[in-house]
Structures are given as structure tokens and as C-alpha cells.
Design goal:
By secondary structure, the protein is α/β, with parallel strands linked by helices. It contains four helices and five strands. The chain starts with 5 loop residues before the first strand and ends in a 22-residue tail after the last helix.
């Protein structure tokens, strides 16, 4: 795995066509010209894995992204964003907004808990710009 890329892990194997669309959307270049640096992880052993298990497997990541059943089945693909340290509760970001989380966590521009101010009542990232 590219050490600088953040993992986007397929944890639900029930929707292979949606995985293809989700992963493409998550890696797309935004209107602002940014994109997430993601490493796609598709191994069957991660199917159904808990957040804690993913933290253990990807402990060196700056942020962990999971394409779970919720992400694959909902409109606009709300991807689960997991704090690798387990200090802050997970939240979701739409596939088109994953670059915001990835770019800021990877560069240390924002810490995982600093996204709290941008979450709505459903813990979905609602960026303001």
C-alpha cells in the first residue's frame, strides 16, 4: 500500500456495482481542483469488520474510510470516516467531500476532532464554503 494514501475499505460485499461508482466518486477531482489520495482495499477479509478491527489493521493511516452497507446503499454515498486513534467518534462524508477529510488529515491541517463543528445532527459532514 502507498504509505501516503488513505485506505478506502470495502466492508460490505453485497453491492459490487455501487462499490465501483462509490470509489470513482470518492477519487474524483472536486470543483475546487482537489482530490482524495485513496488506496482501494477490496480484500474479502475486511467484509463486516468493526471500526476497532479496521483501526488495528490500518493503524498508520491518518484517516480510515469504510464503504459499508450504509455508504453503498444511500444516495451520494455517505462514506464512514474513522479516527485511527479511536479518540473521536466516526462520522460520514459524502463521496464528493471525502477529499476534504483526507487532504486535511493527511497534511495535519486539521485533526480528526476538528471536523466536529462541520457535522450535522446525523454526523454527516456539511462543509461550509
Amino acid at each position: 500500500m502507498d504509505n501516503e494514501a488513505s485506505p478506502l475499505i470495502l466492508t460490505s460485499r453485497d453491492h459490487p456495482d455501487e462499490w465501483s461508482r462509490l470509489s470513482t466518486a470518492a477519487r474524483a477531482i472536486s470543483d475546487m481542483g482537489f482530490s482524495a489520495n485513496l488506496h482501494l482495499v477490496e480484500e474479502a477479509r475486511y467484509a463486516g469488520e468493526s471500526e476497532e478491527a479496521l483501526r488495528q489493521s490500518f493503524s498508520n493511516a491518518s484517516v480510515i474510510f469504510a464503504a459499508d452497507k450504509t455508504a453503498l446503499c444511500q444516495n451520494r454515498y455517505p462514506i464512514l470516516c474513522i479516527d485511527p486513534l479511536g479518540e473521536t467518534a466516526s462520522f460520514r462524508a459524502l463521496a464528493k467531500d471525502v477529499w476534504i477529510v483526507e487532504n486535511n488529515c493527511a497534511t495535519g491541517n486539521l485533526l480528526f476532532d476538528e471536523f466536529e463543528e462541520q457535522l450535522n445532527e446525523h454526523r454527516l459532514l456539511t462543509p461550509e464554503f
